[in-house]
Amino acid sequence: MSCVTTKTSHAHGDGALITAERGTPLDVLDRSIAMEMLADAGFLLLRGFDASLREFSRLVRRMSARITLDPARSLHGGVAQKVDAGLDAVGLHCENGNSPFMPHLCWFFCEKAASVGSETTVCDGYRVWDALAPAAQRAFLDRDIVYSRRVEAAKWKGFVYHALQGKKAIEDVTVDDLLSLAEGRPGTVIRPCDDGAIYYEFQVPAARETLFSDRIAFANSILGPSYNYEKPRITFADREAIPPSLLGEVVRVTEAVTMDVAWQDGDVLLIDNTRVMHGRRAILDPRRTIYNALSFIGLEPGGEG
């Protein structure tokens, strides 16, 4: 990586900016070094590389053990999905963090940067946890949170079809296949609905250890969006509502430590999805074109990988 320069502090002490000489291919990035840097920094912004959607997809495959997806988004080349969530601002969240299938890594590729605004936001869960008041920390340590909602048949079947890697035709996918994928994932309840949809409940800590460390990070989706899905109900595990005062504390702290990624054409952003939440400022330039990919780096707690 002699043609690559690393700046360990992207801004405010978190994240790493990796810049390259013009024409440097993404292939020069060493997987073990990249993962070591990600473990330390939380997210990596790759800038100046000779990047395209094809090269981005190759990078994701090379760095990952398994690719997953969001069935509500269009797929490009088997890996990347075009980000299409309207023009409004998007709250901080872990990608798929409100489901039992949250990936380890969240990737973005900027094919066309906005001419103004429209930044992606990132927020390090370590910094959030350290800044929360002791009473707020106790509240989230004492009780898990629960996400619950209904998911349409086309969406959950599309997810299962991709997870099974074409072993079954999508019209043959059943709820039993989904239950098999969720087996071994604590806190997950899935029930079929009469119209082919499913209803699920997923219980998980709002603050927990991360992919690379046993340090506690506040990384979840309680502030996140539901653009392509029914908005989930989010409560404590005993079904008690999260008090507005506690949510207000979360908003105050996350806003104080959130930073913006001002995109440039060809940028690649890699996020530790178990530690760093992300969102988006309102899109002011609809020509902005961003692709997303989701992946795992190894065996998951549920046995997949």
Automatic annotation (TrEMBL):
Single Gene Ontology BP annotation: antibiotic biosynthetic process
Domain TauD/TfdA-like span(s) in chain numbering = 30-291
Molecular function as annotated in GO: 2-oxoglutarate-dependent dioxygenase activity
Which keywords label this protein? Antibiotic biosynthesis, Dioxygenase, Oxidoreductase
Q: Is the Oxidoreductase keyword given for this protein? A: yes
**Cofactor(s) this protein cannot do without:** Fe(2+)
Q: Out of the domains of life, which is the source?
A: Bacteria
Key word Oxidoreductase present: yes
- Descriptive protein name: Taurine catabolism dioxygenase TauD
Q: Native species of this protein?
A: Sorangium cellulosum (Polyangium cellulosum)
